[in-house]
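During the no-cost extension, the postdoctoral fellow (Dr. R.K.) reprocessed legacy sequence entries with the updated structure-token encoder. One reprocessed record is reproduced below for audit purposes.
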Amino acid sequence: MYDALRPLLFKMSPEGSHDLALDLIGAAGRLGLTGLGRRPGRLPVQVMGLEFPNPVGLAAGLDKNGAAIDGFAGLGFGFIEIGTVTPRPQPGNPKPRLFRLEQADAIINRMGFNNAGVDALIERVKAARFRGVLGINIGKNATTPVERAVDDYLIGLDRVYAHASYITVNVSSPNTPGLRSLQFGDALKSLLEALRQRQEDLAVQHGRRVPIAIKIAPDLTDEEIVLTAQAIRDAGMDAIIATNTTLGREGVENLPYAAEAGGLSGAPVREKSTHVVRVLAGELGGRLPIIAAGGILSGEDAAEKIAAGASLVQLYSGFIYRGPALIREAVDAIAAARP
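Re-encoded structure tokens follow.
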């Protein structure tokens, strides 16, 4: 069905087709129609103390407001991550802010955390029937000074804690000024310390410990990757997601829209993201799980991420270009690659 729909969707503006596709997936979920295709088989994996029915998840960004949770669940994802959500609603950056580079199976976005705010997201989570693994990705509002970013992250953590299977802290989007500076040095350590303390307080309050993952950028040097991994591990966080979009333009330099500002995702970021996973795996030695995202457009790409040291993978641009068939293909390839 997606093969028939894609040409129509790709004739629309990227953001228009995204909104329409999200509406269709949400409607299919409400009507119970998403499970009609060939769903992936079970391939259970334990990560962060949670059991995932398969290791292929939906990355944050496709469903920022939790509008289509049941629809995505019905497609066979092993887990779903919604957001990025901020404490207060915000419109994001001016349009146009989303661009397809079809020749490269790539996307550039500078959405800017456009979302309806954390309270609206929570209401949608409450209304969803899905009872699987749900990640909620939190960020800071654009108008919050980076020096006070920790305040926004703690608000987000407090609000979503009771409704999430795990929580992702997004410090790596290139589209919020100053945000990526939180990945380094004292700023990172201060943020992680505050998150860890609040996590402990909330675990007592709610009677359960919700894992926290930190999402990092692909544009770090190997030394920066190692230092960031050490800080995240030493702070007692539960996982690292590698990676967000890249500011680089390698492989797309001469294509239409390549000069647009924003983060590049899709096939051109695959090798860069996989390299980050390998460096993380070498440094962490299995002491902290890695969730891999970036450039997965085939089952082989997904299996490559697992071979590089990831425990789970997430789809975003690959799902847009390939559709739901990629979920099953990725699960099958990972299963075939297991010893």
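The two ends are 34 Å apart (CA to CA). The longest helix spans residues 185-206. The remaining legacy entries will be reprocessed before the final report is submitted.
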